[in-house]
Amino acid sequence: MPKKILVLNGPNLNLLGRREPEIYGRATYADLEREIHAAAARWRLAATVKQSNHEGVLVDWIQAADGEFAGIVINPAAYTHTSVAILDALKAVALPAVEVHLSAIETREKFRQHSYISPACLATITGHGFAGYDEALALLAAKLVTN
Ligand code: DQA
Fold first, then answer.
1. Tell me: the pLDDT tens digits for 22-33?
2. 50 Cα to the center of ligand 1, angstroms
């Protein structure tokens, strides 16, 4: 049975394709979901992909992942830069987690350069667009083999 990974996307990522295409590209959220499922299959993982614009919903999904999933990939979007609640939820469940950002947050506005989420993650992948999710799944696949 492939190991199950929860892939969470935060606010406004549902608008991919329309939203600031010069930063995030023209591919849509449905395209991203397809790419994540294809990448997961390549790494012999099964991805459940969810998106919410609400912080508490993301926290609920992280809590519910305990015992259900082997790892988490998360693009917390704007909550990256504000959410102690998401950091605490990831720490509480203590599942291996990888943080992904489509854009290179470290080169953008000052307020995007700090992530509250990174301390709870094995790795943070930035600036690789959709390929960042593939890299995150690869990291989790490698980590789960050695566990
Ligand atoms: C983002 C970067 C965040 O700063 C921003 O708020 C997002 C998307 C990214 O994927 O590059 O919504 O997480």
1. 999 999 999 999
2. 16
Residues of the chain by 3-state class (helix, strand, coil), percent to 5? 50, 20, 30
For ligand 1, say whether the CB of 116 is within 6 Å of any of its atoms. no
Distance CA 33, CA 22 (A): 20
Q: Give the mutation target among 19, 23, 80, 135 for probing the ligand 1 site: most ligand atoms within 8 A of CB.
A: 80
- Give dist(CA 110, CA 18) in Å, integer: 24
For 3-146, CATH number out of 3.30.300.30, 3.40.50.9100, 2.40.50.100, 3.30.200.20 equals: 3.40.50.9100
Mutate to test the pocket of ligand 1, among 35, 103, 110, 135 (most ligand atoms within 8 A of CB): 103
| Global model pTM greater than 0.85 | yes
